[in-house]
Records
---
Amino acid sequence: MARRDGGRDCHGGLGGTGTGIGQGDHPPVSLAAQRRIGRDRLGIPEALGESLARSALLAKEYGRLVLSFIKEDENYLEHPPLLAGALWALARLLQTRADLLKESEAPLLSYVRHPNALFRALALWGLGAVGTAASFSRLEPLETDNAPVRLYRNESFENTTVSELAREARTAIRSRIDLTTSPTANG
């Protein structure tokens, strides 16, 4: 049955049930349309990051894709809300699978001076998981950046500041550096 609204149901989704793409008696929707609609309405970068954080198999297969969304020379997401979603997805993925994306340190460092406080905060969250001695001192000036941000972490929203996230990242980096350079860690 053809519909004048292009197949959208009353919930803003596609398909007959509002729970998926191309379900029921409606024709399948192209992958490009799924991406366009999903990004604008469903937080697809965030959903991808959460899914990868929860599945080692998926993270290994698609983790590099999430990183490519924040790199200007790759699959960069120019639209600021999408880019923020991609930064969140990468930072969330790094909380559980940092070993898969150690090369994300440099791209994340490029966001710590971004004019948008949320971008700085998300970069810091990710750097807490992958930052090395090379980035440790570059984060110190951010400890005085009191810009407020609201993040979704640990399954709840929290109000915090860029400075708090900078301190958190530096503490995490320091603990990794201390563990890898301590005499007991090496012998």
---
Amino acid sequence: MVADVVVENASYSFDIPFSYRVPGRMEGQIRPGCRVLVPFGRSNRSKQGLVLRLQPQDPQSQQLKPIKMLLDQKPLLGEEQLWLLELLHQRTFCTYYEGLRALVPSGLTFRLKLMCSLGEARPQQPTDKQRQLLDYLSAKKKPVELEHLLEQLELERGEADFEQLKFTGGYDHNYVTDNYAKGNVRSIATAYCKESGIGMEVSSDCPCVQFYAGNFVKDENGKNGHVYHERYGFCLETQVEPNAVNVEDFHSPILLPGEEYSSETVYRFFVK
């Protein structure tokens, strides 16, 4: 199978579909409208792309560069939106990716950079894939971006065998923040989209924040006909540690009779 892919950050004169070979492991999963990671140019630098069309494989397809990674489990654009994207590209002076940003909510172009490093806890009997991950991270002195890690080890997101991610189908984890003091509102998290320039900073007097990646969102209808699926957005929810009521060393969530509770969390949006 061959995919016609347009890549991000292309100049208008070079903004054309490029043909890539679809690896066997992606057949049955990849569809027009999905985003992918592809090798581009002589240096084979990884770039994000959007699949416009799929075509049957011919004898010369094996000479094409293969797609490195499938980034969307379901298409970002439907058939009508892909038709409109082609129309925008033909009738206006916009690139495919500029048209894409006009068709989808800005949040869908956010790229979460997830970094991986070795922690203290290790599986007692690691699988072959887990051992491969452990060996690779042990050789690195700095955290490694998840997309780079999976690319280097030729793994799909679902193949990484992270036990914690299997529990909830993705990220739904509590993080204990730095510099906590009762009543001290300080910056605890920042999210930023390089493509749109939109960012969000979270400040709070809470000791923890829950990062939830929308793992259970399914077929939710939004504005302008957009349909949202799992991991199309994320939440940063301030709180104390889960199960804190039963763990003495955690921050206490108990409110006694006559006491008052107040907390402050600020979500600041900016453009840069």
---
Amino acid sequence: MAQKPPRSTDVGYPDPVSIRHSLIAVLVLAASCATPSTTPPTTPGKSEQGDASRPRSSTGSTSTEDALDSSTTAPRDSSVTSSPSDSAVPNAPDGQARDANTPDAAPTTTTDGSVAAGTIKIATFNIQVFGKTKAAKPDIMAQLVAIIRKYDVVAIQEIKDITGAVPVLFLDAVNAASGPDYGMLLSPRTGVQADDKASQEQYAVLYDTTVVEALPGDRLYDDSAKDSFPREPYLTQLKVKSGGFSFVLIGIHTQPTGAVAEIGALHDVVEWAKTAFSDEDDFIALGDFNAGCSYASPAQLDSLEFRGAGYFWIVPDSSDSNVAAGSACAYDRIVTTAGTKAQYVGQWGVDKAFTDSAVSDHWPVWAEFGADEQ
């Protein structure tokens, strides 16, 4: 097995020895021995946090680091539904960006993680309240590991562990499973501005080191001028080893109640990124936009410059990445700059690999891109 590449030099990694020793055996066992399960739990609708019909409930039993954002994160809207007949994204061409539940759409899951020759799969996954409580559950960790290993690059949101141990241990678990090694870029904790301290969490980007290399310079967006984001977007630059396609990922987890304004402010982030990464011309924004149901309507999104001709929305308004039953919401999105549209090969999906909301209240969303620089 190839030697793991060093993690990002721009991010400080804590030395979580005491926590590592208590959890590493559980994580490695989960990755290497347990069989991922997609079967609902014996008691449907229940998880460690209580009634899963309210996945974002701030009630129930959670550990300290798992409850950090409970006072500022609104409950998932389970009363509003959408359907595949909802209006499609205006700048998404027919036959490319489609709801993954329709018969002619790209498959929502793969059995072996394979992709077409000369392409890479990039995914986004909000692993709800990812802290030590969730990391200590072997079955859940096994499912998370299996999901990560389907993709070449995965942007992760909602890492809550204040010690920084869990993402490092999770990488160990991913690499304990059979197959190529993955590397990780890990952000500093978000909520840099004084009024955002209640929203602190971390982003991570995991990537298959045999396919992709991480380039230096990953950082949180400098939000000091406008303070547009409680959780500043995380920017990373990667490059496909075989084909040369390089790109900057802009990972985001919006606050539900401010989703439209934050999505609109992503245009500022892209413009800033063009200067911060002056050698790059391909930009992909992805993450938990909260861009659906009562948090963001198609009409509200259509009013944004970030929804205009300069951008290509791969995942449409009719998609559903919300695990909660009876509520189809297009929370999670992948959006490229207009010039990066040429790299998109026309395949995207919602990976409905699990039904247990204890894993997350989001399903991963993915899109496929050509490996050769266009």
